[in-house]
Each structure stands twice: as C-alpha cells, then as structure tokens.
Amino acid sequence: MGAVVLQGCNGEYPQSALHPSSDFATRLDDLFTQIVWWAAGVFVIVEGALIYTIIRFRARPGAPRPKEVHGHIAMEIGWTLAPALILVAIAIPTIQTIFIVDRPTTDEDALVIEAIGRQWWWEFRYPELGIVTANEAHVPVGRTVDLRLRSADVLHSFWVPRLGGKRDLVPGHENQLWFKPDSVGVFWGQCAEYCGTAHALMGTRVIVDEPADFDAWVALNQGSAVALTDPQSRAGRGVFMANACVSCHAVRGSAAVGQFGPDLTHFGGRLTLGAGILENTRENVIRWLDSTQHIKPGSLMPDVELSDEQLEQLAAYLLALR
User: What is the DSSP letter of 130?
Assistant: First the structure.
C-alpha cells in the first residue's frame, strides 16, 4: 500500500490530469476543483454536525438530552432545498464545459491530425503537411490541435491526461478532440479502452515543441529517408528489404510500402519504440527485433529469424532513418 501511495510523489506528473497543460485540460481541472470544493463543504458541515452531536450528547452523568422534534417544516425545506441548490451549482458549469469541449473547434488555423488506433499502436497522419508517423505526435505550443480520431480494428480510447479528456475511437465512426497546448514538453498518453492482449502496452506521446522546432520537425519529416553512408547501415537496409519487413512497413523513398505496421521513414528520430514501452536505443531495438513477443505479448509483429550480425545491421539501419 505504501508503494502505491508513494507513486503520487513523482514530481514529473507523466499522466496526471491534475496538472493541465492545455486549455481543454484546464477547463476540466477547473470543473473538478469546483466540485471538490462543494463536496468538501458538504463533508465539513455533515461531519461537523455529527461530531458536535456525538460530543455534546454523549452518555455521561447529567448529560443533556437532545430535543425531540416531531415534524419540522423549515428543516424539511432546508435539507431538500440545500442539496438541490448544490446540484444546480454543479450542473451549470458541468453542462457549460461539456458543450464547450464537445463541439468542433472554431479555430481556422488549427493543426489537423488524424489519429488512428490500431492493435496495439497509434498512427498519426498530418493531411495538410503530408506526414505519416507512429506513436509520437509533434505539435506546436500555442496552436490549436484538431484531432480526428478513428479506429482501424476494435474499440480504442485516446487519452493524454495533461492535454485533454479521453475520447473513444469507434470502428466506422470519426470522433474529434481539440486542445491548445500551453507548455512545451513530452506528454504521455495511453489507450483507455480495453482492446485486446497488448492493451496495457499501447502507449503514446504528444511532444509539444516551440514553433521553430515544430517547423524544423515538419521539414525533416516531409522528406524521404536519409541516404545511408556507413557500411553497417547499408547492410541493414539489405536485411530489411530481403525479409518480411517490407510487407508491413513503409520507408519513404524506398521499395518498402507496407501499410500494416508503423511507418519507419524517420524511425531513428523517435523517442520510443513498441508504442512507448522502450526507449529508442540501439540495445532496445536489437531486443525488440529479437524477441518482440517476449517484450510485448500479443504484438502482431511476427518473429523473424535473424543472426546476431543481421540484428546489429538492421538496428543500425533503423536508427539511421532520421
């Protein structure tokens, strides 16, 4: 129990809805704070009256007896009217907030991103910019982001707690979520709807950049894969093209045009792999390629029999894709 409680002491707040970093999340936090204060007020009044009564009329020699009341119109009206007024005070801002966050954004300059949930990873498409990436979405600080949410298979739910409330992804239906980030940083997210074996390992990241850094990221990701110069990376490209990798993955500017798995065109520039479960390092890439099913049970990526040398070469190739 103590270990669970201490988890709340993490100063980074990786997935805390109580530390908002967007206008959407701030609205939810403000509403939550109002409701908490109303609940705290009711708690103090009720518990205060209870404690007073217990102490004042506790059993002891000469203790006073509480006055017995048989019917009291004013009290009946009071304890009926007071809760009703509290409910109204909570309902009005709640309904206002629901209408605000559920309507489509009116910001014509909003950055449109298509977020597609798949078993068990996220695909992000920027239709206005011609960019396709996976598991990590880059957005600029201070600009509205208009997420168009779809599912490619089963029910999913997109949730980045510090940026906004969760939204379900329903097959055959497009949902929407918009927010304007106000802080630069890396914000963790998670699929919040059970979607199968690897549901708990379906994470995501939203990386909020300064506008200049976002523009640089866009310029880099609009291009094709980089030209390889070192022998190991070139050998790794041969391994990639000679195996089943090309059937599932795309690398822009090459013969790999698969659509089933994540686009790997700029894989080397990502922070994580496996939908956020491992840091994107050489050692972890080799581990992932060698034992995907052990690291992420249920992953739809098949095991590919490769030698240690081929694993080294393939990892060098993937990390060179920036």
Answer: T
pLDDT single digits (tens) 298-313? 888 887 788 889 999 9
Give pLDDT tens digits for 1-27.
566 555 555 556 678 888 999 999 999
Architecture in CATH of 231-320: Sandwich (2.60)
Closest CA to 261 of 236, 228, 292: 292
Mean pLDDT throughout 36-52?
94
Q: Distance (Å, rounded) from C-alpha 166 to C-alpha 154?
A: 16
List the chain domain ranges. 15-59+74-221, 231-320
Is 15-59+74-221 assigned to CATH 3.40.720.10? no
pLDDT band per the 50, 70, 90 thresholds, residue 267: very high
Q: Please give the Cα distance from 65 to 173 (Å, whole number).
A: 65
Q: In a 10 Å sphere around its CB, with 0-12 CB exposed, 13-18 middle and 19+ buried, how is residue 211 labelled?
A: exposed
Quick check: helix, strand or coil at residue 57?
coil
Rounded to 5 degrees, φ, ψ at 84 are: -65, -40
Q: Say if residues 304 and 315 touch (Cβ distance below 8 Å).
A: no
Rounded Cα distance, 237 and 83, in Å: 68
Cα separation values, 280 from 78, 259, 260, 274, 283, Å: 62, 22, 21, 9, 8
Which pLDDT score, from 0 to 100, does residue 304 have? 79
